[in-house]
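Below is one such protein, fold included:
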Amino acid sequence: MNRREYLTSTLGGFALLGSMSAVSASPNEAIRNRESGTAASYSLPRLAYSYDDLEPHIDAQTMELHHSIHHQAYVNGLNTALDKLAEARASNDFSLVKHWSREVGFHGAGHFLHNLFWETMSPDGGGEPGDADLKTAINKSFGSFRGFTRHFEAASGAVEASGWGVLAWEPDSDQLMILQAEKHQNLSPMVTVPLLAVDVWEHAYYLRYQNRRTDYVKAFLKVVDWDVVARNYATARSVL
């Protein structure tokens, strides 16, 4: 993957647009003619596994509602906002630009973070990373894998109201960070590249775990596909 491909991928979209005030398209999504000045068209991604494949850790009913309804709403909202901004450019009426720009940020962040969420889970996930570089980075940044899991569980469990727990790479110091994204469109520090994210909005876990969010985060770690996380980490470091 070259730099152009990276910066137009889901992962690269975070690196380039950490504030989520704008978006870049994933390569697996249909893109309208860029030269025309119209917006990109986003679609709900297909999952690489069935809704019931993550049982008993993540239940099938939650998975189906979460993916087909909640994520689809972000996709719809993002496309609508981009269409409205295209209409504003065509009519030269920018009276609602603040509203629709915020909608791009909110729905775009929700879409991209959910993409990352789905991609980094697998029925064969869990355990510890097998990739040597990722293991070294985790040990360097958190002292040990156990140090990482305890930190990740605590931070994700303590996100106020709704949001995300995020493992991200910070390129300036070449270290990993665990972030709380309480308003996902304001994900910060802006220069970080998310590698792994757990959705801690209640719709992601309440049917099975009710208010036991920490138990849900522990279950999430049992389905993490560390090979995908390692690939995200290697791609980010090779480009930035």
In short: Confidence is low (pLDDT under 50) at residues 6-37. The chain has two domains: 3-33+59-119, 132-239.
